[in-house]
Amino acid sequence: MKLASALLAGLLAIGLQAHDATAAETYPTRAVKIIVAYPAGGANDIVARSIAEELSRDLGQPVVIENKSGAAGVVGAEAAAHATPDGYTLLMAAGAHTLAPSLNAKLPYDIVTDFQPISLAATSTYLLVVNPSVPARSVKELVALAKSRPGQLNFGSFGIGNVTHLAAELLRVESGIRMEHVPSKGETAALTGIISGEVALLFAVSSAAAPHIHAGRAR
């Protein structure tokens, strides 16, 4: 699996930086932990668990997942930043990780000096989805609908400061519409909100939204 091999190479590089040559030859000697800064069941969690399974086979040691969600990834990133830099704690970061310094002037870590990138794990696209009860069938119609009902439409997100939040804010600013933000604690909760009708629209990861679109629970 090329993805696991690329990540493994970076993982071993971290181990070499943290130990002397003798210790590096035996790395790893115990379980490796991957911190996922989002709830279980989301895209980041799924990718991390897929990687963990491959890494465990390649390394000959358990690779465990620890979900530490909150503050658009800041909680999990802080835990990873303050862990012992010995190659046994990794962070599955998302786009919000690089956005955090622009949104929070007092982060409990520095994304440049406190982290060492290993590998690109996955990429994804986002879809603008609406609850089936929303009459709009295009972005143009959605903008027109929102302008006819200023402040009445609400949009969901995976959390304040998340890419899904900023994408909707960009739509709001560029189109001049007024909408209310209803943040959720992660991807699963946000998709539940769009399906139940709690929110009218949501920018969602395509892989997570697709099953609901095919089933007619979202459009």
Describe the model.
By secondary structure, this protein is an alpha/beta fold. The chain folds into 2 domains: 2-103, Bordetella uptake gene, domain 1 (D-Maltodextrin-Binding Protein, domain 2), CATH 3.40.190.150; 126-214, Periplasmic binding protein-like II (D-Maltodextrin-Binding Protein, domain 2, 3-Layer(aba) Sandwich). The chain has 9 helices and 7 strands, in the order ααβαβαβαβαβαβαβα. The chain has helices spanning 2-18, 21-26, 43-59, 74-81, 95-103, 139-148, 163-175, 187-196, 206-214; strands at 32-36, 63-67, 89-92, 126-130, 154-157, 180-183, 201-205. The strands form 2 sheets. It has a 4-stranded mixed sheet with strand order 4-7-5-6. The longest helix is centred in the N-terminal third of the chain and has 17 residues, at 2-18. The chain is elongated. The model is unreliable at 1-22 (pLDDT under 50).
| Average predicted confidence as pLDDT | 86
**Category from helices, strands and their pairing:** alpha/beta
H/E element sequence: HHEHEHEHEHEHEHEH
CATH class of the largest domain: Alpha Beta
Total E-strand runs: 7
Oligomer: single chain
Q: At the fourth CATH level, what is the homologous superfamily of the largest domain?
A: Bordetella uptake gene, domain 1
Radius of gyration: 20 Å
Residue ranges: pLDDT <50 for 5 or more in a row?
1-22
Distance between the terminal alpha carbons, to the nearest Å?
34 Å
What is the second-level CATH architecture of the largest domain? 3-Layer(aba) Sandwich
Percent strand equals 5-15%
> What's the story with the biggest beta sheet?
4 strands, mixed
Helix content: 40-55%
The dominant shape is elongated
